[in-house]
Amino acid sequence: MRFQRILLVCGAALGAAACSSDTGPTAVNDAPVASVRFVNAIPDTNKVDIRFVDQIAGSPYFGQLGFRDISAYQAVSPGARHMRIFAVDPAVDAGTANEGNINVVSQVFVDTTITFEAGKYYTVIQGGYARAGQSPKQHLIVLTDDRSAVLSTTQIAVRVVNAAATITSADVYNGSTATGSALFSGVGYGTASAYKLLSTGTLTFAAAPSGSTTVAASAAAPVGAPPASISQSALGGYSVGGSMLSAFIFPPSVAGSLAKAATTPGVVWIQDNFPQMPGT
After folding, report:
1. Residue 196: its H or E element
2. Do residues 78 and 177 share a domain?
3. Quick one: pLDDT at residue 274?
4. Tens of pLDDT along 70-96?
5. Please, is 43 exposed, middle or buried when counting C-beta atoms within 10 Å of its C-beta (0-12, 13-18, 19+)?
6. Measuring CA to CA, which of 11, 61, 189, 229 is 20 to 30 A from 251?
7. Backbone angles phi, psi at 29, to 5 degrees
8. Is residue 58 part of a domain?
9. CA 180, CA 174: separation in Å to the nearest integer?
10. For residue 63, how many other CB atoms are within 10 A of its CB?
11. Are the CB atoms for 70 and 39 separated by under 8 Å?
12. Of the candidates 40, 66, 46, which has an alpha carbon nearest to the alpha carbon of residue 256?
């Protein structure tokens, strides 16, 4: 009993000491960050894992990104950041295995360093081909996204990103056919056009190789939606003023590969911001 009383007294003393050193809530470190998203434009391989390998803090993980997938923006600590892109085991992807084959998941597609500046937005595209003998060989394309456009409540901002190695230069039309004047002309592979301001309304992009009127890929922009509550942002789209949208042109997948099946080039839309609706 005497031993138990001693333990209780010591425990109380330790608890008091711990409480006395508590200075209150812990403040979150609001250090400046950059924002980055990744795009898989590799048409001849399985999904990939993208990891920063230089530090734990400020290092988002982009897992199992498949062909034609576009991640959301995530905050990343600025500076020169070391990153690697790894293969994903198809067996794990298919749900037939719990752990990846070390000979597969240790395969590194890309090992590089990218410098990010605080306050800026970046789109990083993994393009080219992973298989030997294909051209161009896989590589990274780093785009700095200029989101400085000022929009009215009846305008949207749209741009084109050419991630299709099979289309060296693209003309993009506002509509489902390549007729009339192109809205964007000569968008080279691995580049992005500047944003253009349009009025809200139905929007479809048709992409054709520059100098041709044969449409290679076409897709309608998302409609968008107002916020469901005052605590939410609007879902970006052609009907929501203030929306910023990018249309990515992708190549077809390679037949027989593990890439998501796509027999023709395609256009994939993504919202670039979370527009605020008046009165929210």
Report:
1. strand 196-199
2. no
3. 84
4. 999 999 999 999 999 998 878 777 777
5. buried
6. 61
7. -75, 110
8. yes
9. 9
10. 12
11. yes
12. 46
